[in-house]
Amino acid sequence: MTALGLLCTDHRGEDDYPRIEQLLGSDVRVDLVRLDPGAGITGAAEELRLSGADAVVRTGEGFTHDAEDEANRVEELARQTGMPASSTALAFVNAARDLGATRVAVAAPAGTHEDTARLRGFLRAGGLEVTGTHTAAPASGTGAGTGTGSDEDALLALVTAADTPDAEAVLLTDPALEAAAQVPALEKAVGKPVLTASQVTVWEGLRLAERRVHAPDLGALFTRTPASEL
Fold it and tell me: Which residues pair with 86 in a beta bridge?
């Protein structure tokens, strides 16, 4: 059994994680541990250790820090929890690179010009060229697995609006977007990998735990041979 601890600062997108756990199979456990805003990490770190987590990934914050600050925060998280650590923002970079994608199109939640510039700078620092950025209103459960045509249509519209011909992958960076179960259909529509916040977060935890799980229902990220092994 591989246990992943996800350190969450809010409730955005949390319904996607049990769905991903189910798609991964019975030997992977995904535990959500709440971190109250402004609270120290001591209590959450103890809860992670007691859960038997093999790795921890901090999620829910998006690209709120620059690359250097994020690396420092993750290093401190690893020190305080005593386990391998990362974040959703770093997971996007690592997942794209694992797929061999160096040019990415991005669908991001609407924000200020500074928010968009920070996101682009973060990805650029990770070696990714951003071919285009599409901003949309913050998600409210779109693609949450209801199977309704409206959900699927909204996700497809978002991905196609963000995609550019020269992009090698499309990143859906909104942490509130519950779209993991729709990834294969989205990838088929645009003909390239699609990465979502919840999907890359769980993948990152598995990477830190040195696990490779073949899960076609979660898209190319869980089926392709890593670029480093080609």
Answer: 57
